[in-house]
Amino acid sequence: MVRLVLLRLLSVVPVLLVASSAVFLLLALVPGDPAVTLAGGADATPQAVAHVRSQLHLNDPLIVQYGRWLGHAAIGNLGNSLETGQSVARQISERFPVTLGLVIAAALVGLLVGVPLGIASGVRPGRTVDAGARFFSTLGLAVPGFWLAIILVSVFAVHWRIFPSSGYTGISTSFVGWLKCITLPAVTLGLLVAATLARQLRAAVVDALDTPYVRTAWAKGGTRRSVLFRHALKNAAMPVVTVFGIQLGFLLGSAVIVEQIFSIPGLGSYMLGGITAHDLPVVQGVAIVFVVFQMFTSLLVDISYTWLNPKVRVA
Amino acid sequence: MAEPEGPSGLTGPADSVTTRNGRGMAAFMARHRRPTRFLRRPSVALPLLWLVLVMVGAAFAPLISPHDPNVQDLLHPDAGPGTRHLLGTDDLGRDVASRLIYGARLSMQVPFETVSIALAIALVIGLIAGFWQGWIDYVLMRVTDAGLAFPPLVLALAVVAILGSSANDVALAIAAVIAPGFARFIRGQALAVKQESFIEASSAIGSAPLRIMVTRILPNVMTGLIVQIAIALGGTLLAESGLAFLGLGPPPPASSWGSMLREAYDNSLLTHPWSLVPSGVAIALTVLAFNTLGDAIRDNLTTTNTTAKPSVPARARNRRGLTMVSRPQVPVAPAAPGAPALLEVRDLTIEFDGEHGPLRITDRVSFDVRPGRMVGLVGESGCGKTVSSLAILRLLPTPPARIVGGSIRFEGRDLLDADFAEMRHIRGCGISMVFQDPLASLNPALTVGSQLVEAVRLHEKVSRKAGRDRALRLLESVHIPDPGRRLSAYPHQLSGGMRQRVMIAMALACYPKLLIADEPTTALDVTVQAQIVELLLELRETDDLAVLFVTHDLALISELSDEIVVMYAGQVVEQAPTADLFSRPAHPYTAALLAAQPGVRSPGPSALLAGHVPPAGHHPDGCRFHPRCPYREEACQIGSMELSDVGPSRSSRCRRHGELDLSGLGEPPAVLHHADLAGQRDEP
Amino acid sequence: MPLQSHAQWRPRVATCFVATAVLVGVLAGCGSGKPGSAPSSASPSGPGGTVSITEDLGGTSSEPVTFDPTKSHVPMVQNPWDMAIYSTLLRPTPSGGYLPELATSATIVDPRTIAVQLRPGVVFSDGTPVTALAVKQGILRNRDSKASAFQAILQDVSGIDVTGDSAITIHLSAPVAGAFYPLLAGEESFIVSPAASSGDLNNHPVGAGPFVLQQYVPDQKIVLARNPRYWDAKDIRISELEYVNTAPGPQQVNALESNLANVSQIPISDVPAVRSNSAYTVGTAAAQTQSLWMPVCKSTAPLNLVPVRQALSYAIDRPAINAAVLKGVGEPQWALWPQGSIYFPAQLRNYYAYNPQKAQQLLAQAGYPNGFPLSILISPSPVIEQAATIIQQEWKAIGVKATLVTSSNFVNDLYIRKVAPLGINPEVRGGVAVLTGPYQPGSEGDLCNFDNHSLDAIASQLSSLAPQNPKAIDLWRQAQTYVVQNALSIWLEFSPYVFASSKKVSGVQFLAQYALPVPYYWSLSVGG
Fold this sequence. Notes:
- The complex is a heterotrimer.
- In chain A, 79% of the residues lie in helices and 0% in strands.
- Chain A contains 13 helices and no strands.
- Chain B is of the alpha/beta class.
- Chain B is built from 24 helices and 13 strands.
- Chain B has helices spanning 24-31, 35-39, 42-59, 61-64, 96-132, 134-149, 152-163, 167-195, 197-205, 209-245, 257-268, 277-302, 385-392, 420-429, 438-441, 448-457, 464-477, 483-487, 496-507, 526-543, 554-558, 578-583, 588-595, 605-608, and strands at 324-325, 343-354, 357-369, 374-378, 401-410, 413-414, 431-434, 514-518, 546-551, 563-568, 571-577, 644-647, 650-652.
- Chain C is of the alpha+beta class.
- Chain C folds into two domains: 50-244 and 498-526, D-Maltodextrin-Binding Protein, domain 2 (3-Layer(aba) Sandwich), CATH 3.40.190; 290-494, Dipeptide-binding Protein, domain 3 (Roll), CATH 3.10.105.10.
- Helices cover 24% and strands 21% of the residues of chain C.
- Chain C contains 14 helices and 23 strands.
- In chain C, helix 13 (453-464) packs antiparallel against helix 14.
- Classes of the chains: A mainly alpha, B alpha/beta, C alpha+beta.
- At the A-B interface, helix 1, helix 6, helix 7, helix 9 and helix 10 of A face helix 6, helix 7, helix 10, helix 11 and helix 12 of B.
């Protein structure tokens, strides 16, 4: 187990290197001069721009710049925003909990809706429940998330005014306030997850219920509950856990749009701002955090595998 | 590989020609000789229709659209749907319907362009990595890892920020997101294909790698890719809309559906909410079409038959875990001659739902098992013996299975009348079952101990501790060494024979009176087979256990059973005490089976048992065996053949049983030892 | 991005070298400021009521909330509450003028020197007096802070002399006194109490403004209470001023409807919906900075030809854009200043009134009778996209086939990469910067290095003159006549901030010259 975790952590390193250098190089390819923004945008004087360039070592060869960035990043210093001059690491540490809260809330919505739906429809394929669940998941996968967000906003925020249509309250400030703010975004994101989970779980449950070991469970006199929950679900969970892990990554990506629509000060909106302003340290920093997060979730998936699938434990 | 009669075969008995694992275009095409049938399904036809509609609309937009999409009417913005403007006007007074039709151009162009680019990149990466492997593979896979490590939309955003937001740039950006996944998929497929012998053969002959890739790997890869592509097209449309919504779409006045949605959101959310509808619905419908199409193709590639129409009304369908019974009339208790049997199966008739209505899998199957006796149920694969044995405990899933006639009496109680609770009690306590493949039949995620303890605790209220003690004793009784340690082992950690012992121990957990063993030795080594057989014999002696032994292996059963029931094509064709049957078979099929035992007679098995068991739904008229029968006559081919008594406690389903002098093995087959069986276990 | 509809073309960074707004009424002689007499006699228990205003405190479009002016990184985004706490030396008025505030007068002695007379007897909210030394220290503290907000702007201050108990003289290193003058009404002259400056300013800010910080709930609200020690407390007719967190967008209207706030900025696209609701009053706050205009590269054909640029300008129907895009709350822009400004030369009104025929004649005259292709760089903001789409259609009518190019990095793409010869600009400026920025070499904003010596001369003269100086008015008119007649840029609209307020609140006025609109506290009242 420990070995597995260590190995996985080790395998993150090359991926991080590739990913970070890719982001660095990609952004270096962006035409234009990142120093202009910091020097005052359209009103920057060439001298000011030159000054900023030399301050930021933008005249160094790319590889040197990357090396320096990497060295700093290794000790947790992700540089300062070109736009506001604020520490990127600090901003990320302030915004990450916001996005994490959103992702977790969305994942919860996804699980709470998707899992029962998937099980219900997998246990009785062909029935009304199944038809309904399949309709829901097919639709859920086809509807653009932001459209769903808008619809939710216009119904629950504009028309009925149950939830605020946007804005954010920190969870430490007021839990109820946070809950109110996070509900619509989390439902928007979560329904997509729910649709995917329901779909996968249905297939997995149908498959699992069709296996010889489930037949064995029936044959030895298993109750419906023991067969479904003890025998079928644990095995059915395996493919679903993978999908869920992938979904968490998707969530992080979709959070960009949703944070934008609901004005949530998370990593997504930070990155979007960074991308539009060509704020290289910001984009770089957030991208790395995203990658680490993604790797972390896949590590969690692997760990949960060892619990679900004893075969992995030995290997 | 699953035996077609096994669990996987249950899903589609009519489809025994194409295997479940049939991969590749050939299998797909074979399944759809007439592709129109595939196209005629609503789940295929409707999405296709919509996509064609959208594409035709996009292609002929200037001809179709009622207005110029860019002409503004600043005095009449945000108009609702009406006769002049079918879907109303937008914030600048432009006709929404026309913009929707023109918008389809970009909304269709981007997905197809994206997927083409992604495919091109992925094919190169995936094929190279999969074919050469080694360090190239390592490097390429780390690159794709990095690509996959980004949240998808974020990567696309970054690329669009660099490239710009024209349709081509957006396509490139999204392609960068999709390509790694495609590449991994292609690599995986390429690896799998490469390991197949024909590629090895080709490379041994010395074909150029490129040639091998193009001619061999590519076609195999493409089949699976089609599904991925369909899904990716929908995903790309969503991604493009998302980018457009964030303002990274095509520059105005050109519009994609995504940018229309954005304009509506920015400018008319409060004043004219209707404007959110047309473009949103267009996106949703199109993605829906792509996804549904992808699903339909996937279903066709992976499962044999998903559209079988259940012929049972929904409310009458049984719940999980209990085969449904719908007998037109309940037969009266038969007056069984002689001593009352433990198990009396009478006229058991089972139907499966098929594509063209119900298929009769077994036809009036009858046999008895008396206490403490062992009955062999034999026949080739596909004869209905496993189905019959599963039907006893009502383990056949409904759908597709239904028991439509007959009765199954266990200790006088008709199991076909039992409800789930009663049946649950009989399972394990009255009758238990051992299956063919112990690895698949044991739950891989639970320890041996917990599965054993569960078997005890399902029927008896005992503590965990007591359950564990019992499990220990059960393992001892099936001669598993070091049982204490085995309890905490997982099935995959045990050897094949050990697993089957565990299965048997589990079956014995609640002291059943009847054990149904369905090919319990088939998946095992020869030496292990012998041990299991010995174990069964021993149990029968010590526990006075009746056994119904289902097998295709006559030689094996000859030394075990007291009686033999021979099945062919869903019917019992002969029934006799073992010794009688072996010495004087009364049915040509039995004789053929006997003759097919190697080393017994000179003509090889193929000579006498040529041909196949006809699948359900294709049973010939007359005697079902007649196409393969060397003794057939004109009369054998018409009407239906009935089982008739041919001696004391034996019967046969051959109209010529009186005239034929079928030769058996003369002596009960003491000559057959387990070691002799090595060569003839037929490949499942 | 969708929700920043209005924010998009607010300055991202302080692009204004001098953020000024100015002068409809000339500053009524700062020296003779009359309200100096009875500073602290106003009773704290004056008329009451709470005004709640929506503000984005969540930090998506601005930076985190701080109450220490020197801790702010993005210029002017903290102003809405910081001005209430600290006040300024001069009080800006909604019409663009200045009134005496903490200073009774400010005089430009010469282009490098400004003399400031402070109001005697003024105290900070902690009771310590606002002395000349405190003011000097306050300004220098702002200058020397490491934050980027002040550095560029205050670097011209070479020194401050305390010339009396309540008099200081500000020395500048360049002849820019005129350009510097408006800073006396800006955040640059927020004076922090010297006694408090070493303390926890972010939680306990101490200033001499009309309000004191009562409560700050991060991400939720800022509550300010009337400062009883404020010198002009009798003119503050509300007891509480509240900022409630609301992100920009349709939810601003929601905030009003749910009584979360009684005053809110609203998106322009929601103006018709709000207007139709009789419960609210819609108001606007306009300033020179709120300009929607197109910088043009004047060095390459065909835009190097004056008639071509004039033709393009004639081919734009500004009232139509105002009606369709700005829902009628905007003002067609004919020159660098709005029509109500004293700097606006009357003869430029309707100078480029919509006239496609004339545009075609001019094109033909310039040798382009059939028009020409052209690309316009735009940033992805709804207002700009809509305006650009309309312009595209209008130019099509005179044969100019415009392609819109969206850029998410406008400054880089237009000024440095020169992706297109003209663009619709989200960068806004005020004061002399509207001349020096786009038409004088030395900044990236001078597209294609346009240079005209007489214009440069006017600009540098304007930098040294006080805004109210009659000579400045004359110079401004000269400059605009030249700039407009030669169509150095193409101007479209002045687009104001739009507000809606509950009928219960009266006197809602906003100062529009800052990056975020700042309420004019002295006219607000509730009920009645």
